[in-house]
Amino acid sequence: VQQGAFIFDIPFFNKEVIREAINNAVAHRDYRLTSEIVIKQFPHEMHVINPGGFPFGVTLQNLLTVNSTPRNRLLADVLAKTGVVERAGQGVDKIFYQTISEGKPLPNYSRSDSFQVELRLSGIVEDKAFALFIRQIQENRKDDKKLNLREIIVLNHIRKGDSPHPDDTDVVYTLVNEGLIELIEKGITQKYSLSKEYYTFDGKTRVNGSGKPFENIEVDNLADDLKEIFMYFRSGKKVTAKDIETEFKLNNRTAQRKLNELISKEAIEKIGSTGPGVYYKLKKENV
């Protein structure tokens, strides 16, 4: 794959994804039916079809959240204990995790019915910049700090311009604090954008909520302590000096000094002059 000056490898069909798809078909198929598991491979697509619909309680809507319920518990345990699968119940998670990380279309289970489960995997990379963006994030993190599936899904939603699910509010807050997404429009439905690093790979200009281009303050040029406070403002809310004291466990004098530093760097602005009504917020060009 070539994206601007970057050249990197993405397999048409990820080996781990194929393994998990086939393992799922073996573990979850209905052995009361005499049909076979069928694998169809095309130049840019692969289908894995197993007899029997989804196990009881599993639907297209809860595929990633419901607990795994294999039809044959003994077989599932054997697959796990012999190392064929790393951990029972993680197959679908891995399929989605790897596929989204590679910038490919979501795994497609929509043709499944009561008689068979059909998984369609695309080998087409629809967003090379997103694949590069995720790869860079993961390579710069320790194993225990790498993005998890929920975070990958939220980033993918924002990439496509969709609003995050209300249940993912905690994930959104984490990603904002880490500088991976940014609030671009406040209101009943808040809108977010991927960080400027994504647009470095994408080659496009970011736009704010009104569709106008905007440039952010260079966060990387801030000292670590100021960067952390600056990212706190990314939630888009009004912030008081007391908020900074409480959130970062600072005394009043230190909190005020750091706020003044951010003001001098034109990162935030002070609203009001004196009294309890004073608060701070991002400067308009940084929203």
Task: Show the helix and strand layout.
Blueprint: E1 2-3, E2 6-7, H1 15-28, E3 38-42, E4 45-51, H2 73-81, H3 91-101, E5 116-122, H4 128-139, H5 149-159, H6 169-177, E6 181-185, E7 191-194, H7 196-202, H8 224-232, H9 241-248, H10 252-264, E8 268-271, E9 279-282
Antiparallel strand pairs: 1-2, 3-4, 4-5, 6-7, 8-9
Helix pairs in contact: 1-3, 3-5, 4-7, 9-10
Total number of beta strands: 9
Strand content: 5-15%
Counted by DSSP, the helix tally is: 10
Whole-angstrom Rg: 23 Å
Query: Mind describing the biggest β-sheet?
Result: 3 strands, antiparallel
- SSE order, as H and E? EEHEEHHEHHHEEHHHHEE
Across the major sheet, the strand order is: 3-4-5
Shape: elongated
Helix content: 25-40%
Q: Whole-Å distance between the termini?
A: 33 Å
What integer is the average pLDDT?
Answer: 84
Secondary-structure-based class equals alpha+beta
Low-confidence stretches: 208-215
